[in-house]
Amino acid sequence: MMREFCSPRPVNAFILSSVFETHGPGSQEIQFAPQKVEAACRMRSLVFEVCVDSVASARAAAAGGAHRIELCSSLEVGGLTPPADLLRAVRDEVSIPIFAMVRPRPGHFVCSPAELDQMYAQIAQCAALGANGVVLGVLTPDGKIDVPAVRALVTAARPMQVTFHRAFDVSSSLERSLDQIIEAGADRILTSGAAPNASEASHRIARLVEQAQGRVNIMAGGGVRSSNVRDLVLATGVCEVHTSLGFGDGDGTPTASSRNGASHTPAPFVVRESDVRAMRNLLADLDACNTLHPAVR
């Protein structure tokens, strides 16, 4: 299956002016403007993914203009595989692409043979229920990408798309892991640049975009909000962004508590259509041709 990547696009006057407008001509940060212009020049038509864990949130994401949803359960532990009845119900409610999390348990990302078998079964279930993609990740005990395991999971998932989730951010070397994920055949990497929030590591994400050279999509996620998405996109050149835009106890990203399996009673996680629409409008302004599109089936 041919991978679908965002097509290159030119930078318009809005983007170039935005690079300088953010900090002003008197700011010390103006010295970084050439790099930001270069990042802007690498920008492509933007794809907007929203993480949800319920039918109501999925409906709100679709109505607000999200291009794609990531469907999870148990967001309080970083997201687990959604149950069949949830995936079926969401598929009945929305027409936009659904990427389902495939993660059988909370905690670390080193998987036993039995857990890998469970992931194969979950992938097959996601395909049967109409998912367009899956989100997964497996590491070795020393923090490298488990290339044979991931490659086999990717093969099992085809023709669905495959996103390698933020297990990437806790791997031992982001640069080496990127090349290993390309070797394993995944279509995109979700990353915060190994920081709590993507905006704190925009320089690192920009380097990953440069290293990827179009061989895999880099999707920025982790603390992405309307207040920071403009600067994040301009600084990194990513063509895909991932956000929860919800309030509650989870955002669909592995946390310290999710890695050690800690649990508590979560607050409801709710995505509002108005928040999604506000983010979509911001991204539309950043799109040079003002033609955002769901680049992934």
In summary, what is this structure?
By secondary structure, the protein is of the alpha/beta class.
- Termini gap: 12 Å
The Cα radius of gyration reads: 18 Å
In the residues, how many domains can be counted?
2
Succession of helices and strands = HHEHEHEHEHEHEHEHEEHEH
User: Approximately what portion of the residues adopt beta-strand conformation?
Assistant: 5-15%
Q: Mind explaining what this structure looks like?
A:
With 297 residues, the protein is α/β, with parallel strands linked by helices. It has helices at 13-21, 33-41, 55-64, 84-93, 113-128, 147-157, 174-184, 202-212, 229-236, 256-260, 273-286; strands at residues 47-52, 68-71, 98-101, 133-136, 161-164, 188-191, 217-221, 240-243, 246-247, 270-271. The strands form two sheets. It has an eight-stranded parallel barrel with strand order 1-2-3-4-5-6-7-8, surrounded by seven helices. β5, α7 and β6 (188-191) form a beta-alpha-beta unit. α3 runs parallel beside α11.
